[in-house]
Amino acid sequence: MSVPTPPPGIAMTQLLGGFQVSQALYVAAKLDVCTMLDDGPRTVADLAERSGTPADPLGRLIRTLTMVGVFRSEGDLVATTPLGALLSRNHPGSLAGMAELWMETHYAPFEGLLETVRTGVPGATRHFGKPFFEWLAEEPARAELMTRAMANMTGAREGMFDGYELPPGRVVADIGGVDGSVLVRLLADRPERKGVILDLPAVEPAALSNLAKQGLSGRITFTAGDFFESVPAADIYVLGFVLHDWDDDSCLRILESIREAANPGARLLVLEGVIPPGDTPHMMKMIDLTMLGMLPGRERTEPEFRTLLERAGLTLDRVVPTPTPFSIVEASVNGS
Questions:
Q1: What's the confidence (pLDDT) of residue 6?
Q2: CB of 261 closer than 8 Å to CB of 231
């Protein structure tokens, strides 16, 4: 049976109240409520005791989130739905870290979205008094939160590389690879390949820990550096969710660093969402709003990727769709 569409006034009211739902999801994640329900349903009183909160406000929050499909009631008991289970820290596709990141770093800057649309200046830059990544790097705890959230997004991209064949080449460099989660997925079953992660020094501990955990420390190394300045020589380069953080001129500097260091015949894999034409619903259209509020970057269409790559002296070969909202944009370096 289909669910009736609410009248426009009610639907708009629900949309306008979205900020409250976002905060409620954050509270559920921060208190680990969904993690507590991994082993089965519990009463609100039990959840309140475990989370150190009064039962009444917690119960009201849970009741609200049942309306958006996060929890379900079983008599006096509360359980998570498959949707709500994504806020458990134990879930393989957990988004608890993303809930924390967005509410603790993105929420307040979005208060200035009106001014961002009027001026083009990201709300984060105005709110923090400096570019978002610069502010993030000032405190190790902030950088660690970002690393955890990005690892969450890697889980959310599960299946992206199913059936995908890497182009030929022995050395694969993940530029801006954070903790190496993407490179681990690409190289785990390809013992003949070597890998190198390039990222800022602050993320090195997380990367080394992850590589050791995956048993790949012998095949994947970490190099601290700045991709605007230089990158290691390699046969295949991976830019996983990097270009969307930057404006075109900054992206050109990254791509030129790759072109200058690349081995002959090198290839580039850009892992990004590609915005479809027209009014087709797509997650990247919502993420593009996040870019607008936080960073100078943007999500791009296929023609925009083609133009950007050509300006940097690269050739877009093909866009490979995946089972996820993201695509693999393959390009040849130096037109090879």
A1: 84
A2: yes
pLDDT computed for residue 336 by the predictor: 47
Q: How many CB atoms lie within 10 A of CB 44?
A: 21
What pLDDT score does 40 carry? 96
CB half-sphere exposure, 84, CA atoms < 13 A: 29
pLDDT band at 3 (very low <50, low <70, confident <90, very high): low
Res 145 pLDDT > 60: yes
The values of phi and psi at residue 287, to 5°, are -65, -30
311-318 long-range contacts, CB within 8 A, separation 24+: 311/248, 311/252, 312/251, 312/252, 312/255, 312/256, 312/259, 313/255, 313/256, 313/259, 314/255, 314/259, 314/268, 317/267
| Cα separation, 196 vs 172, whole angstroms | 6
Which residues lie across from 319 on neighbouring strands? 329
Q: Which domains does the chain have, with CATH numbers?
A: 8-87 (1.10.10.10), 96-153 (no CATH), 159-333 (3.40.50.150)
Catalytic site positions: 244
Predicted confidence (pLDDT) at residue 92 exceeds the cutoff of 90: no
